[in-house]
Amino acid sequence: MVLSCSENKFFDQYKPVENLEWSRDTIYNFIVSNTDTISKRNVFINIRNNKNYEFSSLFLIAKIEFPSGYKLVDTLEYEMTNAEGKFLGQGFSDVKENKLFLREKVVLSEKGDYKFLIQQATRSINDIEGKNPLKGITDVGLSIEKVN
Questions:
Q1: What pTM was computed for the model?
Q2: CB 11 within 8 A of CB 142
Q3: Residue of 65, 72, 80, 116 with fewest CB within 10 Å of its CB?
């Protein structure tokens, strides 16, 4: 029996980055309604970038707000290129899609709406305060898949 990946998708949504410039103050949020409090799931941050992305890695701040009000915050670093500077991710055009683990085999143990917030924290050496927007990111997404 063959199962497609889409059968395991619980949530999948992208939001476009305005003018392909992600400022430090722009936070992408995703609301996920949950009624299943026992199944394990993998949570991914999905990033699409084009050739204008200037860095070999990407720093993100990811927040999860539970229905009860509990908040979980992570600062994450993801590799965006290999050692030779070639972009990682899937895609045949100038746009590459990166599926980045946020949480593995997690149980959303509360019923209700979870809020996932994603903010970039990538800085150049000359921009410690993050005044310059991050260029080359086309879309920010979140996907949640059921674990078999």
A1: 0.89
A2: yes
A3: 72
